[in-house]
Amino acid sequence: MSDPIETMWEGRFIVARREGRWEYVGRARGIKAAVLLAIDDAADGRHVLLVEQYRVPLKAQTLELPAGLVGDETEDEEAESAAARELEEETGYRAGHIEVIGSFASSPGMVSETFTLMKATQLEKVGDGGGVEGEDIVVHRVPLSGIADFIAAKRAEGMMMDVKLLALLGPMLLA
Fold first, then answer.
1. In whole numbers, what is the pLDDT of the chain averaged over residues?
2. Which residues are paired to 143 by β-bridges?
3. Burial class (CB within 10 angstroms; exposed 0-12, middle 13-18, buried 19+) of 28
4. From CA 62, how far away is CA 40, in angstroms rounded?
5. pTM of the full structure
6. pLDDT tens-place string over residues 2-37
7. Contact 62, 138 (CB under 8 A)
8. Quick one: pLDDT at residue 1?
9. Cβ distance 91 to 139 under 8 Å?
10. 86-123: b or e for each residue (b if 16 or more CB lie within 10 Å)?
11. For site-directed labelling of 144, which of 8, 85, 119, 170 has its Cα 20 to 30 A away?
C-alpha cells in the first residue's frame, strides 16, 4: 500500500506534494508540456530552432528547445495543437508536419511533470516570434553541423542550458 498524497501548496500552475518522505512538485490542473525539436531543412542547410529567454527560477538567460503548456488555457487542448501554437508564438515558424516522439520526464526525482517531445518539420517562416507579451524570447536558427560549438559559446557567456538540449548533443557525447 502506498502512502497518501498530501497537497502542501497549490498555485495557478504548480502544486507541491508530499507522499511519505518524498516531496515533489508538479503541474496543477493536469496541465502538461509540449517540447519541439524544430528542424528547418532549407536551401542553406539543415538548422534547428532554439529559444533563449530569462527564467526566474534560475535567475539567468536559458537556451532551450521551443516549448509550451498544453491545456493551460483550454482543458481539452491536444498536445499537437499546443505545440503548433507555441512554435509559431515563440519562433515565428509554422510546421507543415509534427511527429510525436514520446513522453519524457525531465527531473523525475523532484518533479512529476512529463513532457511530450515532438519533431516539427516542413517549417515556414510566418512571423517574428518572440513569444507573447512579457516573454521576450530570442530565436536562434542554428546549423545542426555547428550545434555543439553554438551551445559551448552560449555556455561560456554564462547562459544556462535546458537538459533537453542533450537531444542535440547526444551523438557527440557518445563519440
1. 91
2. 47
3. middle
4. 21
5. 0.90
6. 889 999 999 988 999 999 999 999 988 878 899 999
7. no
8. 65
9. yes
10. bbbbbbbbebeebeeeeeeeeeeeeeebbbbbbbbeeb
11. 85
Per the DSSP assignment, residues forming a β-bridge with 9 are: 16
Q: How confident is the model at residue 60 (pLDDT cuts 50, 70, 90)?
A: very high
In the numeric block, which cell numbers belong to residue 67?
516549448
All cell numbers assigned to 61 = 538567460
| CA neighbor of 168 nearest in space, from 34, 41, 45, 36 | 36
Cβ partners under 8 Å of residue 148, min gap 6: 169, 172
Please, are residues 126 and 88 in contact by the beta-carbon 8 Å criterion? yes
Over residues 115-144, the pLDDT tens digits come to 999 999 999 999 999 888 878 899 999 999
> For 26, phi and psi rounded to 5 degrees?
-155, 180
Q: State how far the Cα of 51 lies from the Cα of 74, in Å rounded to an integer.
A: 24
Q: What is the CATH number of domain 31-173?
A: 3.90.79.10
